[in-house]
Amino acid sequence: DSGVTQTPKHLITATGQRVTLRCSPRSGDLSVYWYQQSLDQGLQFLIQYYNGEERAKGNILERFSAQQFPDLHSELNLSSLELGDSALYFCASSVDGSTNEKLFFGSGTQLSVL
Amino acid sequence: QKEVEQDPGPLSVPEGAIVSLNCTYSNSAFQYFMWYRQYSRKGPELLMYTYSSGNKEDGRFTAQVDKSSKYISLFIRDSQPSDSATYLCAMSGNQGGKLIFGQGTELSVKP
């Protein structure tokens, strides 16, 4: 167990809908990362937060947004969902988000858009 | 061209074999190199972590980094069926904490 908690484990929804994925980092970790994993694209970095502030942005669509709350948990919001958004979404955390840090991943949320 | 290239496999070996997995990369700014193991439908877990060039050994696992060739390897000795998983290389440099992952190589170790 990595100590990173993600909910829900599975999510099935329809095109055009909006969903929220939740992540609680390991105790003591201040930085949270979101990754998307699909068969054709592999593990793609979406966005990173450190202590409530956005620190780095990757290949995140404008329809997607995230935030990190004062208690350090994070939410990833996906809106106007399309079939191609179906993927595994992982959250990871690290102590302070430095370049050389090790990331610890949660078990992921499997999103299916029908 | 992707920043990190990794052969997706699948790779199938008999139990006890030595497994060699590798990645190439194009960004010379990468300094931190990692290998993650991912079991089916689970989150990646950190297996090996190295900084710059050189070798690192941990039990049956050895990680090698050759920065001059932009090439990293993971060797698994005396492979076990429990090693069957997808192995992802990952690396970072000066882009904040974000890791760039390879596509992952699916490994199957047959009893």
Q: What features would you describe in this structure?
A:
The complex is a heterodimer of chains A (114) and B (111). Chain A is mainly β. Chain A is 0% helix and 53% strand. Chain A is built from no helices and 11 strands. The N and C termini of chain A lie far apart (31 Å). Chain B is an all-beta fold. Chain B is built from no helices and 11 strands. Chain B has strands spanning 4-6, 11-14, 19-25, 32-38, 45-51, 54-58, 61-66, 71-76, 85-92, 100-101, 105-110. Chain B starts with a strand and ends with a strand. The model of chain B has no long low-confidence stretch (mean pLDDT 92). At the A-B interface, β4, β5, β9 and β10 of A face β4, β5 and β10 of B.
Average pLDDT level of chain B: 92
Largest sheet data of chain A: 7 strands, mixed
Beta strands of chain A, count: 11
Largest interface: A-B, 30 and 26 residues
Q: What structural class do the secondary elements of chain B suggest?
A: mainly beta
Biggest sheet of chain B, in brief? 6 strands, mixed
Q: Which radius of gyration of chain A do the C-alpha atoms yield?
A: 13 Å
* Share of residues in strands of chain B: over 45%
> N-to-C SSE series of chain A?
EEEEEEEEEEE
**What distance separates the N and C termini of chain A?**
31 Å
- How large is the count of helical segments of chain A? 0
Helical content of chain B stands at under 10%
Q: Give the termini distance of chain B in whole angstroms.
A: 37 Å
Helix content of chain A: under 10%
Strand content of chain A: over 45%
Q: Mean of residue pLDDT of chain A?
A: 93
Question: If you compute it from the alpha carbons, what radius of gyration of chain B comes out, rounded to the nearest whole angstrom?
Answer: 13 Å
Unreliable residue runs of chain A: none
Low-confidence stretches of chain B: none
